[in-house]
């Protein structure tokens, strides 16, 4: 479903790659946490999956498509299968809750009848049917994030990418958002979520991929947050270090750029980059609402095995992947050199990059075909 083959990303003007030779496979139905210190490459991973950035080297397949072969004009079509949720909600401030959610469907040319049915259904799912006519500023932060999630899932995407979706929320509200994401995942949507929230990760026990200085240092099927917060941010030109833990031994001999990764005792490491905010007790209170991820066990095992094979230093027992989930149809190759800076509508896959807007900047965004 999502595959990185030897992907590196180096931003212009930087000396150290944000991502360094990443191999990764995420299968249908998984719920995956991306964890790691600030600057370790989590958001870069998500932006690459969304084709908001392109890799410097390596290839990325999402939903069977080689992202390198998708032209800028076709990016909105590709993104229709992806929902995106950000830390800062990114709602349209002058539109009601219902209009914010409907916006996604309007711009991809869904009929009025479809929209009139889908929007209330989705608002009901996120528990906001009573607030459909409110404006975003009349909502709490948690409610605004639920609108953003409703907007992301109203078109029933196969994949939901979430970049610190609880980062601006209090612990109890965060637990509610995670319950909602669990429900969405249980309905079949693959979720990849970058987070600093140890309480959430520890309680949910889903697949955890840990990045350190742009490399995968841990991939656990039912992982916890681990000692991630003890991993120092790596400044330009410094030698990268990763915290060794019982669950996540540091890869001996792994490299970051030209520098060796040298394990450093926890006592000698820099202070935590981000403090965990949601205590386990809060997550435990939300637990009865969780749906056990039984249906995803097989694919999660398979994905863990594939990633383990790709990142040979990470000890995970291999299992046979289900054959139906492993086919990766590849689209015909077309070349594309640049991914331009994108507007919100473009980032959400609602308008082709560079497509014209009208005076309001947000209405004239119909089908781009
Ligand atoms: N547009 C950019 N231009 C230059 N460097 C960038 C850009 N975006 C990210 N970086 C750098 O790439 C590295 C990885 O950044 P990224 O945002 O992916 O990390 P992160 O793990 O998501 O961090 P955080 O937890 O703080 O959000 C960092 O060193 C960052 O400074």
Give a structural overview.
- The chain has a domain at 2-81 and 157-229 and 270-338: P-loop containing nucleotide triphosphate hydrolases (Rossmann fold), CATH 3.40.50.
- 27% of the residues lie in helices and 16% in strands.
- The chain has helices at 42-49, 75-79, 97-107, 112-125, 141-153, 171-186, 198-204, 280-286, 297-310, 344-347, and strands at 2-9, 19-26, 31-35, 57-62, 65-66, 82-86, 159-163, 190-194, 207-212, 215-220, 255-256, 259-260.
- The strands form three sheets. A six-stranded mixed beta sheet has the order 6-7-8-3-9-10, sandwiched between helices. It has a four-stranded antiparallel beta sheet with strand order 2-1-4-5. A two-stranded antiparallel ribbon has the order 11-12.
- Helix 3 (97-107) runs parallel beside helix 5 (141-153), helix 4 (112-125) packs across helix 5 and helix 5 (141-153) packs parallel to helix 6 (171-186).
- Mean pLDDT is 74; it is low at 230-276, 287-297, 310-340 and 358-369.
- Bound molecules: adenosine-5'-triphosphate.
Structure class: alpha/beta
User: CATH homologous superfamily of the domain at 2-81 and 157-229 and 270-338, by name?
Assistant: P-loop containing nucleotide triphosphate hydrolases
Within the largest sheet, what's the order of strands? 6-7-8-3-9-10
What is the CA-atom radius of gyration, in angstroms?
Answer: 20 Å
User: Whole-Å distance between the termini?
Assistant: 25 Å
Overall pLDDT metric: 74
Order of helices and strands: EEEHEEHEHHHEHEHEEEEHHH
């Amino acid at each position: 479903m999502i595959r990185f083959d030897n992907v590196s990303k180096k931003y212009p003007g930087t000396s150290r790659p944000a991502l360094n030779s990443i191999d990764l496979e995420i299968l249908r139905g998984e719920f995956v946490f991306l964890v790691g210190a600030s600057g370790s490459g989590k958001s870069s991973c998500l932006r690459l999956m969304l084709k908001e950035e392109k890799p410097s080297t390596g290839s990325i397949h999402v939903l069977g498509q080689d992202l390198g072969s998708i032209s800028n004009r076709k990016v909105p079509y590709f993104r229709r299968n992806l929902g995106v949720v950000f830390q800062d909600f990114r709602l349209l401030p002058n539109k009601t809750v219902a209009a914010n959610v409907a916006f996604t469907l309007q711009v991809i040319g869904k009929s009025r009848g479809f929209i009139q049915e889908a929007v209330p259904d989705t608002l009901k799912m996120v528990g906001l049917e009573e607030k459909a006519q409110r404006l975003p500023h009349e909502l709490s932060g948690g409610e605004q994030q639920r609108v953003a999630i409703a907007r992301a899932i109203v078109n029933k995407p196969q994949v939901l990418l979430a970049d610190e979706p609880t980062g601006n929320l209090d612990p109890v509200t965060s637990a509610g958002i995670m319950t909602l994401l669990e429900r969405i995942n249980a309905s079949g949507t693959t979720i990849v979520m970058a987070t600093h929230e140890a309480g959430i990760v520890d309680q949910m026990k889903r697949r955890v991929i840990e990045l350190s200085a742009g490399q995968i240092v841990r991939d656990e099927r039912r992982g916890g947050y681990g000692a991630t917060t003890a991993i120092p941010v790596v400044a330009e030109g410094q030698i990268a270090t990763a915290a060794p833990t019982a669950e996540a031994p540091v890869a001996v001999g792994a490299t970051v750029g030209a520098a060796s990764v040298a394990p450093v005792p926890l006592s000698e490491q820099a202070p935590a980059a981000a403090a965990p905010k949601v205590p386990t007790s809060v997550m435990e209170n939300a637990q009865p609402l969780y749906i056990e991820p039984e249906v995803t066990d097989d694919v999660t095992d398979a994905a863990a095995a594939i990633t383990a094979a790709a990142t040979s230093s990470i000890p995970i027992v291999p299992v046979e992947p289900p054959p139906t989930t492993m086919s990766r149809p590849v689209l015909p190759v077309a070349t594309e050199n640049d991914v331009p800076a994108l507007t919100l509508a473009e980032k959400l896959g609602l308008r082709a990059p560079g497509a014209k807007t009208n005076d309001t900047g947000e209405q004239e965004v119909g089908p781009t075909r």
